[in-house]
Amino acid sequence: MTQIRICHTTVYHYRSAVSLSAHRLMLRPRESRELQLMSHTLKVSPEATIAWAHDVSGNAVATASFTGKTEVLRIESNLELNLTANPWPIFNISTSALNYPFFYSNDDRADLGALAIQQYLDPMGRLQKWARSFVQGAAPDTLELLKAISLGVAESLQYEVRESEGTQTPIESLDRGKGSCRDFAILFAEAVRSLDIGARIVSGYLYDPQSTATGSSGSGSTHAWAEVYVPGAGWINFDPTNRSIGGFNLVPVAVARDITLLMPVSGSYVGAANAFEGMEVEVLVT
């Protein structure tokens, strides 16, 4: 068992006092058999009314509502949790899904819905052709195929720190040969979906006590990866940025079909068009 503390602080600065709209916060980890959340405190300044709810994917979402005006918005999330995931997991895949192609049950297919459909345009079929290049033989091992695609993403893209918002399309990532962790995750998930396999994007934290993982800053950082649904085994974590499988060093906060739905903090303000001065984000994982 690994005991982890995470302090995630986001600070927005404004040149003049502004009124803040309701802000949407996705900062509380998804609890599971392998992740036990011991405590979570959320501090917001200026003072705000916090309302909690779960979205369509079961993510915990806090809505912070403000009154008055301010020149600084500070949001601090403090977590204590236990991770018990096996660093060398064994996946009990159903016999029917051991080899590709396999077919989901009608119920699984209905529930996966958009998670099994490509979200980005691929009019020339370039991404599907790229994904199918990893299908070796008539009925390849499903898990080995998924590992090969994840490794293929890592070998096709050079990691870069990209502070700008948004993500590249999978085709843009292949053309540029570079991307951030969110671009790695999108390319992998879309490649898997092009093979009619369900996948979703995960946003959370990377725990890296040795400071050797790609995309990590110090002992940890915010991170993005993907999960693939395989009958029997369920959702399997793939982190193409670090060429890893399983969630022993990953702290999932939220899942969705697309990374644009997973912003840790989102909201707007009413004030001068040039009022926004800048923001600071700090993540400490110990």
Please provide a brief summary of the model.
Residues 173-242 form the Transglutaminase-like domain. The chain has helices at residues 106-112, 126-132, 142-156, 170-176, 181-193, and strands at residues 2-20, 23-25, 35-45, 48-54, 60-66, 69-83, 158-159, 178-179, 199-207, 220-230, 234-239, 244-245, 250-256, 265-266, 269-270, 276-285.
Descriptive account of the structure:
This protein is an alpha+beta fold and 286 residues long. The protein folds into 2 domains: 2-83 and 263-285, Immunoglobulin-like (Sandwich), CATH 2.60.40.2250; 95-261, C8orf32 fold, CATH 3.10.620. Helices cover 17% and strands 40% of the residues. It has 5 helices and 16 strands. The protein has helices at 106-112, 126-132, 142-156, 170-176, 181-193; strands spanning 2-20, 23-25, 35-45, 48-54, 60-66, 69-83, 158-159, 178-179, 199-207, 220-230, 234-239, 244-245, 250-256, 265-266, 269-270, 276-285. The strands form 4 sheets. Strands 1, 3, 6, 15 and 16 form a 5-stranded antiparallel sheet that branches. It has a 5-stranded antiparallel sheet with strand order 12-11-10-9-13, with helices on one face. Strands 4-5-2-14 form a 4-stranded antiparallel sheet, with no helix packed on it. Helix 4 crosses helix 5. It is globular. 34% of the residues are buried. It comes from Hydrogenophaga crassostreae. This is Transglutaminase. Residues 173-242 form the Transglutaminase-like domain.
